[in-house]
Write a structure and sequence with these properties.
By secondary structure, this protein is an alpha/beta fold. It has ten helices and 14 strands.
């Protein structure tokens, strides 16, 4: 189990210099957010409440040539408009529609691990909005944000999975960018031990203000704030703001190797890890097949990856890593884990392949292409009562890497 407080007894590892003194200057854009809280509150009805983009994903198997032909950078996320989304979708093969979004993935993962989770995000009152609300509630997460009656349609993300299991995302943010402070239930936020925020929110000024308002409410209530940097290109767009937030206004930071090196314009992962150390209480940095590194004060914890078999799809791996990380310390140690999950690190776990949140499968299930011969309709209007979506089942969450991040 990976703690969200200083790690117990990990040894200092070579290559990671001692903690530098944290900056004392409060960030201008986060000036309204009080200083971090050092203790995780225990008297809360929710483990985690998250705010993020409510998105329906369309997962499609494709080839590297398609990415090259459309100028897409493998492994990253590009923002597109609705017209471009429809044009790309029309040129691709059959897909699987399933609810997603970075923070929503994490919150659903927490719920499936037995945690009490709530999600705040905006959808439109359309077919995809209905799908999203159904999916996230069906896995046990609370979702009460009213659907918008006007404006852009529900957000969707084309996730292009190449043979090497890398995922490249083309995202139309749609209704999700309309999230603003008026959508927040500020009575809900203080009910959680941790507020989880995704960096993608910074792409919308209104969502950014909702982000800051929620963080201020959580700080004032004595809770903790966790931030995911989301994407290296997102970091490039908002580097100065993220540096200010990380430097004294975030308790727990999640980032992958590309994101953390981008944040500090570092030449190496070790350099970036040195720079982030001490900026927040805990930095959990994932490194794909190399596992992850957790930094807390002058301590370093190296977590080896737990390999579940052939890699099929990395979509949502980081989101579910965050779910296990956040839920671990929130779970009552006297309460057994959900059926099928190991009760302690090192026990065997069923082989699963992961896409992210709201996507569970029976033990041993392997992700396949949708059945051949099904006619592909317009986005969000595939034939049949569920199109190509797989039914949501109340079983264990999928993950690509486990290690100590799973309870």
């Amino acid at each position: 189990m990976v703690p969200s407080a200083p790690c117990s007894a990990p040894s200092q590892q070579a290559g990671f210099p001692p903690q530098p003194p944290p900056h004392a200057t409060a960030p201008k854009s986060a000036a309204s957010v009080p200083a971090p809280n050092s203790q995780l509150p225990t008297d809360r009805s929710l483990d985690v409440v998250g705010i993020g983009n409510a998105i329906v994903d369309v997962l499609i198997q494709t080839e590297d040539r398609f990415l090259e032909d459309h100028g897409l950078s493998k492994g990253t996320m590009a923002l597109i408009d609705e017209t471009t989304a429809q044009a790309l979708y029309a040129t691709l093969g059959p897909g699987l529609e399933t609810s997603g979004g970075s923070a929503a993935n994490t919150l659903a993962g927490i719920a499936q691990l037995g945690g009490k989770a709530a999600f705040i995000g905006r959808v439109r009152d359309d077919q995809l909005g209905t799908i999203f609300a159904h999916d996230i509630r069906s896995v046990g997460a609370r979702f009460d944000t009213p659907a918008a009656a006007t404006g852009p349609s529900t957000a969707r993300c084309l996730i292009l999975v190449t043979p090497d299991a890398q995922r490249t995302m083309c995202t139309y943010l749609g209704a999700s960018v309309g999230l603003d402070p008026g959508d927040l239930d500020l009575n809900l936020v203080p009910q959680a031990k941790v507020l989880y925020l995704e960096g993608y929110l910074w792409d919308s000024e209104a969502a950014k203000q909702a982000f800051l308002a929620a963080a201020a409410a959580m700080r004032a209530s004595g809770g903790q704030v966790a931030l995911s940097l989301s994407d290296a290109f997102c970091v490039d767009r908002h580097r100065d703001s993220f540096l200010e937030l990380v430097d004294g206004h975030v308790d727990i930071l999640f980032a992958n190797e590309m994101e953390i090196t981008s944040l500090y314009k570092a030449d190496s992962f070790e350099d970036a890890a040195h720079q982030v150390r001490g900026r927040c209480q805990v930095a959990a940095l994932t490194r794909s097949e190399q596992g992850s590194v957790v930094l807390s004060g002058d301590q370093t914890l190296l977590i080896e990856p737990f390999r579940l078999g052939p890699l099929v799809d990395t979509t949502g791996a980081g989101d579910l890593y965050a779910a296990g990380f956040l839920q671990g310390p929130g779970r009552d140690p006297a309460r057994p884990p959900p059926p099928g999950l190991p009760s302690r690190p090192g026990r065997p776990t069923p082989r699963l392949t992961g896409w992210g949140l709201c996507r569970t499968a029976p033990s041993g299930a392997v992700r396949h292409r949708p059945p051949q011969g099904l006619k592909q309709g317009p986005l969000g209007q595939n034939p049949g009562p569920q199109g190509f979506r797989r039914p949501i089942q109340q079983q264990q969450p999928q993950a690509l890497f486990r290690g100590d991040a799973m309870p």
